[in-house]
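Protein in question kept underneath.
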Amino acid sequence: MPTGQSPENAVIRPLRAGDLPAVCDLFEQVFGTARTPVQWSWKYRLETPLFSTPVGMVAEDDTGRILGHAGAVPLHGWLDGASCRMYQIADVMVHPRARGHHARSNLFTRLVRSLLEALADTPEPVFAYGFPGRRPFLLGARARVYDRIEDARTFHRVPRPALLRMGRLLPATWEDPQFDSAWRRLRRHVPLGVARDRNYLVWRYRDNPFFVYQPWWLVLGGRRRGWMVTRAGAGTLTLMDALFHPFWWKRALAALDAEALAMGMDQIEAWWPRTLPLPGNAQVTKTDIVVTHMVWKTFLTTARVRRTLYYTFGDVDIY
C-alpha cells in the first residue's frame, strides 16, 4: 500500500465543496461509472441546502488523499402526520486499497457511523434509509449500522386494453401548483416517506441531469385524483413515482396500461413495496437491492418502518 493510504491513519471529516473532484474520481474507481461535480451537487442539493447537517463524510489519509465517502441525500420527510428530516444514505465507498479490518472498526463502518451520528445531532426526528446491494448490506449489518426492511421487488405488468375505460392520464407540467394541493390532500396516506410535493418533484425529476421523465395527472370522474411519473425506455414504461388514494391503484394501473399501449410499450415496471396490496395481471421478482433502515443512533424500530414506509423507484438515484 502506498505511503499515506493506511486506513488506520485516516481522519473522518465532513465533505467540503472542494472535495467533489476527488470524490467523483473515487466513485469511478469503486463503481466503474463516471460522475461529475455538477451531478454530485444536484444529487446532494449543495446549491440549495435543506438542512445545516453535513451531506457527507469523507476519510482522508495523512497526505490529504480521500480514501472513502458516505453520503446523505437530504429530503423533507413525512412521519405520522408531521414533517421530519429524512436522508437517503448513498455512495458509501472505500478505496480498494483501504478496505478490510474488523467489521466494527474498518473505514466503511467508521464512515457510516460518523455520518449517522452527525445526522442524529438535532432535536428534530431524523429517519435515514438506503438501498445498498446485498454485499454492502451484509457488511453494514455485521457492523450493526444496517437493518433489513425488505428485499426490493420489481413489479412487471403486460399492458392490456380495457373494455371499459374508467380513468385516464393527463400530461402535467412540473411547475403546476396543484402538486402541492395534491400532497396536502393525500399525505395522510403516507405514514412514513418522502414529502412528495412540488419542490420535490421539480428537484428529483425536472432537474435530474441523468434521465427525462413525464408527469401525469390521474383523472377519474372529471377530477384529478393524484399523479404519476413515468420514464420511457426500450419497450418498457417505468412507473417511477405515484401518489393517490390507495383505493385508486387498480384504475390508475388500467389508465397506465392505456398510455403504455399508445406509446407502443410491451411492459410496465415499477418497484412495489409490501405496504401496498399487489394488483392482478402482474409478476413480482426479487432484486439484489436491500431496502435498509439505518439503525445507528435511530429513534424508530425497523419493525415500525417495515409496516409504514412508502417508497418507489424514485427514491433511488440510479433510476
